[in-house]
Structure formats: C-alpha cells, structure tokens
Amino acid sequence: MKINSNFDLLVPNYLFADVARKTNEFAAANPDKEIIRLGIGDVTLPIAPIVVASMKKGCEDLRHKETFKGYPEYEGYDFVREAVSGYYKSYGVKVGADEIFISDGAKSDCGNLGDIFSQDNTVLVTDPVYPVYVDANLMAGRKIIYAAATQENHFLAMPDENVKADIIYLCSPGNPTGAAYSAEQLKIWVDYANKNGAVIIYDAAYEAFIKDESPRSIFCIEGARTCAIELCSLSKTAGFTGTRCGYTVIPKELERDGHNLHSMWYRRQATKFNGVSWPVQCAAAEVFSAEGQNQIKENLDYYSGNAKIIASALDELGIYYTGGKNSPYIWLKCPNGMGSWEFFDYLLQNAAVVGTPGEGFGENGKGFFRLTSFGDRDKTIEAVERIKNLLK
Ligand code: PLP
C-alpha cells in the first residue's frame, strides 16, 4: 500500500514547540521571574452561566426516556439553525436557517470543505495566514498560491486580476494579523470570485470582536451568495474552544461546474459527520438568546479591553501594528528592525513576556510579532508596563 505522499509536502511547524521550549528554558534559568504569556490563542474565561445552564438541561434530557436524544440531524437541530439565522438577521444579513450547517467548529470545516472540490483546483491564501488552510489543502494535493499581506496594504491582501485562483480563503478579522476588511475591499474580492468562477471560503471566526462598520459576514456584500461559503465558530465568541461548536453557511444558489454546493456539502456531511451532541447544541442556541448575547458580551468586552490596553501602549511607543481594535490579536512590527525570533528572545530575556513570532505564519510574517488579548487583565497590564519600560 501507499500512504498519502502529500504529507511529505507539509513543512514541519515547530513554532509553538519552539516557543514552549525557549519559555521553559528561560523559566528554569530564572525561577524568580514571573513570565507573562501574551501568545496564547485559547480563551481563558469560563462559559456564560446561562449557556452552561442550557448545556446542563441538555444533559438532563439525556437521562430520561421521554426526552432522550440519539443521533442528531447531520445539519444540526432546527432551533439552533433558526437561532443562528436570527443572529445574522440582527445585523441585517439574510441567511436562511436551511442554509446553515451546525459543525463541531470552524477548523474541521476549513479542511473538510475540500471534499466537495477537485484536487486540481488552485487555492489562494494570504501570507501571513492561519496555517490550517495551507496544510489541509497540501494534504489534499492542491496547489497553493499566496496573496501578499504586508505593511503596504495594512495586512489586507487584495486580488490580482492576473492571477487565477479557484478556492480563496479569507479570514476577517484575521488571524494572525487582526486586520479586518472593509465592505469596499470585500466587494472587490466578491467581484473577482464571481468573475473567475472561484469560491471564497470566508472564515468569520472572530466576527464577534468587530466594533466598527467592518462587515461581520461576507454575506453583507452584494454578490457573495453566488461565490461564498462562510465558516463561523463559537470558540472565541462564547468560550467553546473545548466544547466544540460552530456553523457553516452555504447559500442555496451557490453552484459551480453544474453542481449545487449546498447539496454536495449535505451529502458529504451525511456520509462523514454524525452531528454535534444535544447538550452542546442546546448550549449553542442559548448563546444567541437575548440574555446569552448579554452574558457573552462581558467576556468579549474583557478581551477587547485587553487588546485596547496593548494597542494603546504601541500607539504611545509609535510602533506600527494591525488589529487590536476589531480583533483579539495585535500584530506588530518588531522594533529597531529586529527579526521575529530576535524580538521574541529580546522580550523574553528582558521583560519575561512571551508572544508569537510572526514568521511562523508565513514569509511576510518575518519581522512581525503577534500578541493576544486572551489573558488575564492584571497580567496584560503588567506585561504592557514591562514592554513600555523596555522599548521607550
Ligand atoms: N479559524 C481561525 C482563523 C482560527 O484562528 C481558529 C482558531 O484559532 C479557528 C478557525 C478554529 O476554530 P474552532 O475552534 O471553531 O475549530
């Protein structure tokens, strides 16, 4: 037998392992120093009480014959899909409940969606990029091309009319850059995709952090229904990183190559996915209730407050960055021309603060650095003070 030799194309990613190793070595050599981690990509605050109450009620249902649930619908329970549809409506976007697939998170669908597309398609991603888009498509044997996101375009890559792509991954607000596309910019992508017969896979995992008029969904843009699929997640929105739930929207009218993509995805899910558990779907629906929205906002505001503290310090220091305003991520230019790892070491050795070197996210991440706002408020303030003292 032969294995999938496409795995040989994957570039080993030692980023987080190297960060952990260097941090541990520093901790061992400096037991008196308190290390503050501003590199974490996971949430730290607990799930909102009303959401947990709904999950508990879902568990209780499973204990009784009358309310027991077996296999869920492949596409999710109707009341959850209605709740998601209502959420879109709350900010003016029309997405039918029957266009929504409840998932076990955005990461799975980022890669799984490839099942409905040919291996011969060319995939366009931005550089820097959330590495899952690249690795999932390399595993599937697709060719990857890159659209440069740099300081010149404020880390918002735009399409090149001379480049032909079939599948386009966009993430806004982006990980790692925190940059959010404007409606005008997204319209250019949508027009490009419709003109070229491409499909945009739009990752809106961080939409709940948007504070200004930046679109929260690709479906805010005219023409998106004929070229886009949207992924979203409750991971960062409502603390579901461990609980696992998200949703994928495929408009009913989205067709390519004579096929309806919604129907194809339904078939794919019915074959390879048996749905999200009842207690988790109960919890997910509660996230979208009025009180659920109130309660999750507390955590979102906490993280956004941390992001603002970091961003304000960079403003004071005159350091270029993107993100921080519509995003839990802050993507900064390493000061004094330092490389990403050089700055990592400098910050660790002199301030005992840990971040993530940008070059782990692509060539254009060289010389940049990612900080996150998912940590504790007091520690974020302390880290920012240390950074200011070091760099001022
Ligand atoms: N998409 C992006 C851009 C992310 O940064 C992440 C998590 O870090 C995910 C998707 C994964 O989301 P989920 O937890 O829903 O799988």
Write the layout of secondary structure elements.
Blueprint: H1 15-29, E1 36-37, H2 49-62, H3 78-90, E2 100-103, H4 106-112, E3 122-127, H5 131-139, E4 143-148, E5 167-171, H6 183-196, E6 199-203, E7 228-233, H7 235-238, E8 246-249, E9 255-256, E10 259-260, H8 261-272, H9 278-287, H10 290-317, E11 321-323, E12 329-333, H11 340-351, E13 353-354, E14 356-357, E15 368-372, H12 377-391
Parallel strand pairs: 1-13, 3-4, 3-5, 5-6, 6-7
Antiparallel strand pairs: 2-8, 7-8, 9-10, 11-12, 12-15, 14-15
Helix pairs in contact: 2-9, 3-9, 4-5, 10-12
This protein binds pyridoxal-5'-phosphate.
Residues 41, 105-107, 130, 171, 175, 203, 205, 233, 235, 241, 246 line the site of pyridoxal-5'-phosphate.
Number of helices: 12
Order the strands across the largest sheet as they lie in space: 2-8-7-6-5-3-4
What fraction strand? 15-25%
CATH superfamily heading of the largest domain: Type I PLP-dependent aspartate aminotransferase-like (Major domain)
Oligomer: single chain
Radius of gyration: 21 Å
Overall structural class, as computed from helix and strand content, comes to alpha/beta
Q: How many strand units?
A: 15
The average pLDDT score comes to: 97
Low-confidence regions: none
What is the helix fraction of residues, given as a range? Answer: 25-40%
The CATH architecture classification of the largest domain is: 3-Layer(aba) Sandwich
User: Secondary-structure element order, as H and E?
Assistant: HEHHEHEHEEHEEHEEEHHHEEHEEEH
Distance between the termini: 60 Å
Q: Return the CATH topology of the largest domain.
A: Aspartate Aminotransferase, domain 2
